[in-house]
Amino acid sequence: MSWTDERVDLLKKLWQEGLSASQIAGELGGVTRNAVIGKIHRLGLSGRGQPTSTIKRARRPRNSAPVRQQRRTVTVGATALQAEVEVEMEAEQETELQPVHALVMPISRRLTIEKLTERTCKWPIGDPGDEDFHFCGCDSLESSPYCEYHAGVAYQTSDPRRRMKRAANG
DNA sequence: CCCTGATTCGC
DNA sequence: GCGAATCAGG
Question: Closest CA to B9 C1' — which residue?
């Protein structure tokens, strides 16, 4: 595939709408997210708001040396401690999670192919067959077709205890 | 591990 | 110009 005017146009549009590079790649088809990002840069529209970075990396030769893959798993402190922190953070998130509004897509993120797979929430939104019918698309839990919130919704009807627990928490 | 965008550079 | 490989970070 090449960057035709239409494809570039769609690329710009989706990028401006806030879709991630991989999602755009999936939308366009025939390109990888790297290709998308590369094009974004060439078009000079990189830096949407402030995703990540503002960092400066030292350039590094690619051809000559195979380059020792110094996988930086810096683990500054103790691994055990790091694990603890993670658990704590997760617990916090769970406690603070609640709003239905938080699941609302900021933009028309209608899921098409690609991303709608194993780890994306397949909770239907809208009427099937309707033009605006789409899926939640949030990160889904492992071994679950739905995201955290929608999984909870699904279980509410079948598990009263879960409902009570949720009510107590939030 | 999953993901994100950023950058380099051989093609 | 293109994009894979690589990088830094969440």
Answer: A62
Q: Is the CB of A68 under 7 A from strand B?
A: no
Q: Which residue is nearest to nucleotide C4 (CA to C1')?
A: A34
Torsion sign over Cα A73, A76, A79, A81: negative
CA-based nearest residue to A106, from A28, A16, A6, A35: A16
* CB contact at 8 A, A15 and A45: yes
Chain C bases having any atom below 7 Å from a protein CB: 1-10
User: For chain B, which bases have at least one atom within 7 A of a protein Cβ?
Assistant: 2-10
Question: A11-67: per-residue pLDDT in tens?
Answer: 998 888 888 898 889 888 889 999 999 999 999 887 776 444 444 455 556 654 444
pTM of the model: 0.49
Other C-beta atoms lying within 10 Å of the C-beta of residue A100: 9
